[in-house]
């Protein structure tokens, strides 16, 4: 299987920097914003966005990790409800994930957020949008659009888990 790097560490950082500024500009600041990263790599990307926002705005934006397993519609066996709380009521939730593909993970994440409270708004930030949607879901903030075939795999690597940063495509 051939693997090719399509975004290097510098490109990944630049994409997150751009997304940070887009979030701040679109929301006219960061008041009432909560970042929610979909486990596992979305959680890491959300933490990085929170740090970047703090550098730009001098405000600590709350950042949470979300396990969507309980709300997935494509798993054979139901997962238990996570034992956590997430203060999203009346907040602008920026949902963060690494790769947007068919849209099912994002749908599950929106169900989870609604479980925790009625958000004022939900926005979606993804590092990579690869297309092939099965649901009418689109990202508000995109690091890079990478058209791909269904036979290809796109994998995001982050330093905190994989000892390197980058985005890779396998054929």
SSE succession: EHEHEEHEEEHE
Which CATH top level class fits? Alpha Beta
The number of helices is 4
C-alpha Rg (nearest Å): 16 Å
Enzyme class: transferase
GO molecular function, one term: uracil phosphoribosyltransferase activity
Organism: Longicatena caecimuris
Keywords: Glycosyltransferase, RNA-binding, Transcription, Transcription regulation, Transcription termination, Transferase
Which features does this protein show?
five-stranded parallel beta sheet, globular, 8 strands, alpha/beta, EC 2.4.2.9, three-stranded antiparallel beta sheet, 30% helix, 171 residues, Rossmann fold
What does this entry look like structurally?
This protein has 171 residues and is an alpha/beta fold. The protein has one domain: Rossmann fold, CATH 3.40.50.2020. The protein is 30% helix and 28% strand. The strands form 2 sheets. Strands 3-2-4-5-6 form a 5-stranded parallel sheet, with helices on both faces. Strands 1-8-7 form a 3-stranded antiparallel sheet. Helix 1 packs across helix 2. The longest helix has 18 residues. The mean pLDDT is 94.
A few lines on this structure:
With 171 residues, the protein is an alpha/beta fold. The chain has helices at 9-26, 41-57, 104-116, 159-162; strands at 3-7, 33-38, 63-66, 92-100, 121-129, 141-145, 153-157, 166-170.
Architecture blueprint of SSEs:
Layout: E1 3-7, H1 9-26, E2 33-38, H2 41-57, E3 63-66, E4 92-100, H3 104-116, E5 121-129, E6 141-145, E7 153-157, H4 159-162, E8 166-170
Parallel strand pairs: 2-3, 2-4, 4-5, 5-6
Antiparallel strand pairs: 1-8, 7-8
Helix pairs in contact: 1-2
Organism: Longicatena caecimuris
Family: Belongs to the purine/pyrimidine phosphoribosyltransferase family. PyrR subfamily.
GO molecular function: RNA binding; uracil phosphoribosyltransferase activity
């Amino acid at each position: 299987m051939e693997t090719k790097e399509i975004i290097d560490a510098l490109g990944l950082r630049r994409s997150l920097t751009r997304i940070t500024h887009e979030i701040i500009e679109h929301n006219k600041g960061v008041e009432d914003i909560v970042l929610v990263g979909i486990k596992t790599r979305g959680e890491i990307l959300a933490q990085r966005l929170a740090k970047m926002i703090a550098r730009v705005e001098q405000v600590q934006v709350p950042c949470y990790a979300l396990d969507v397993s309980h709300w997935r519609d494509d798993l054979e066996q139901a997962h238990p409800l996570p034992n956590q709380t997430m203060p999203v009521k009346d907040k602008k939730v920026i949902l963060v994930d690494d790769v947007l593909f068919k849209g099912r993970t994002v749908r599950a994440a929106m169900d989870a957020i609604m479980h925790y409270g009625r958000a004022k708004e939900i926005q979606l930030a993804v590092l990579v949008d690869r297309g092939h949607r099965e649901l009418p879901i689109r990202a508000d903030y995109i690091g890079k659009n990478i058209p791909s075939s269904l036979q290809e795999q796109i994998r995001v690597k982050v330093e905190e888990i994989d000892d390197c940063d980058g985005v890779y495509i396998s054929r």
